[in-house]
Amino acid sequence: MSNFIVRSVTGVLARIGRTADAAFRHTGKMTLLALGVARATFTGKVSMRDVLDQLQSGGVASIPLVSVTAALSGIVTSQQGGYQFTSSIPLYVLGSVVTSGVILELGPVMTAIVVIGRVGARITAELGTMKVSEQIDALHSLGRDPVAVLAAPRVIAGLISMPMLVGLANFIGVLAGIVAARFAVGLGPESFLFGARMFWHSWDLLYSIAKGVVFGLVIPLISVHMGFETRGGAEGVGRATTSAVVMMIITMLVLDAVFPPLFLN
Amino acid sequence: MIEYIDVHKAFDVPVLSGVDLTIQTRETLSIVGPSGTGKSVLLKTTNGLLEPDRGDVRIDGVSVYHADRDQTTEMRRKVGYVFQYAALFDSMNVFENVCTGLPRDEEKRARSPEVVRKVCEALEDVNLDPAIVMKKLPSELSGGMRKRVGLARAIVGRPEILLYDEPVTGLDPINSAAISRLILEIRERTLVTSIVVTHDIEQALEISDRVALLTHGKLRFVGTPAEFRASNDPVVRAFADRQAAAQAAIQLVERDDRDEENEEGT
After folding, report:
1. ipTM of the complex
2. DSSP notation for B162-229
């Protein structure tokens, strides 16, 4: 019995150790990748055309899905808030709840989830396929730096596009909330905006965009790193993509949880 | 001149266990050996694709792993690499793929007559018609054509050293012979130093000045094709002659059977 307990405890500790080891290795490699991207950027080795291509495929092409997700988030928040506030709290407070909810949380987080699924997964699969088919080795052998050619344009595009997408999601989410409040609980736009202004802090908008910047850095960094780390053919690409999506979602949610104590107190 | 000095490399298990080898300028050396003995790993240490755990690789006296940035750039310009499965960039057409083999400043002027001429020459050197293949994507090419485009990309920058990783693997005998002939033609025309990793012993003996046999992470034999053929080493014999290889395989199976019977008897 005691042997069984010792084995179980040892097994759990070994697992924790392996997970911690993997986490530190990934963090270290991603830090080096981020430094490589910064070096490539500030030494002018990044092609502007590649950045524009990535802005188009990762940013502009994400606008429809981000818009739909943001609109639905605003509508749901407005409807549920209206349901809870009716006959208990003055309804104009709904304006503040929806605006704050969308700008502080739903806009950045829902946009990040869309970008992780649409762009992050694609980047890992794309670079993973290049890795297993030796295209990244080919870049090395041709004297091209894969960090400058592949990683930097994606990270720069993420840093530029993500805050803009968050701003767009905030605008559409609040607009959809106003429309939903009108039809769900009969709260007019003037009352909604009156409530929104009553508890408005300009800092909230900056906070929201700052989340966009951080997510815009972290999502492409993780997806590029996982692409570069891919091993083992088509199955390896699938495995790396799944791991990357899990890693991006967890990292994004952890960072999201770290933001309020750091910036809202 | 390329020097491998006590090169060690391990992944989960040791792959290279102290390889010492010198390849003279303009020499063609083939590395042969059983699968999984580190032939491609050794080749990849030559231009920094894989860093040895111990030891060093030097090109013209300059360490591949301790060179400064300018020396590394210069060294990479000297070395062309032909990948086993060509490793062409999927999203680029043949012209753009071959262009990447040129120095960066020339690649940026991809539409200039000078660059177009160089790309066309490289494609013609590997017996491809530029007018037919230039606009094609890698997915539209056959295996043999992809290998030729990979070769054109490696030679377009006129390297002094060419590294071939399994250049005929997966090709039919006609395409294999054509690639072997191309390797010889390129060597004669450009006086390039070549290292060829191959499973095809006939190809190795046909195109090489010297042949190296790598087994268990160490060089078992280095010598001319004539010395290779005349060697009495049973492992070299097994590689030099298909009949001897078959005989060695049969003896191995018989010995395993005898061992099993003895174990059951005891």
Report:
1. 0.82
2. EEEESTTTT--HHHHHHHHHHHHHHHHHH--EEEEE-S-HHHHHHH-SEEEEEETTEEEEEE-HHHHH
